């Protein structure tokens, strides 16, 4: 996520202007979907690691 240009732009703009900047709703939705996908992948990875450990 940190490599995503949209994330970097929003983070920099929010830091620079010291207030929450409004983003593009479509890009916000894409970011939310990517975040959920990352959580699902992490959960699946955790389950597989638990199987290997036992």
SSE order and pairing:
Elements: H1 5-17, H2 25-53
Q: What would the principal axes of the Cα set say about the shape?
A: elongated
Radius of gyration: 16 Å
Distance between the termini: 31 Å
Largest sheet, in brief, is: none
Strand content: under 5%
Number of helices: 2
The average pLDDT value, as a whole number, equals: 89
Helix content bin: over 70%
* Element-level helix/strand string: HH
Structural class: mainly alpha
Low-confidence stretches: none
What is the strand tally? 0
Q: How would you describe the overall organization of this protein?
A:
- It is a single chain.
- The protein is an all-alpha fold and 54 residues long.
- It has one domain.
- The protein has two helices and no strands.
- The protein has helices spanning 5-17, 25-53.
- The longest helix is centred in the last third of the chain and has 29 residues, at 25-53.
- It is elongated.
- The two termini are 31 Å apart.
- InterPro entries: Geranylgeranyl_reductase (IPR050407).
- GO terms for molecular function: geranylgeranyl reductase activity.
């Amino acid at each position: 996520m940190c490599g995503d240009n949209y994330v970097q732009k929003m983070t920099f703009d929010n830091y620079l202007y010291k207030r929450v900047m409004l983003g593009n709703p479509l890009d916000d939705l894409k970011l939310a979907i990517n975040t959920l996908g990352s959580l699902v992948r992490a959960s699946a990875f955790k389950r597989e690691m638990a199987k290997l450990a036992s």
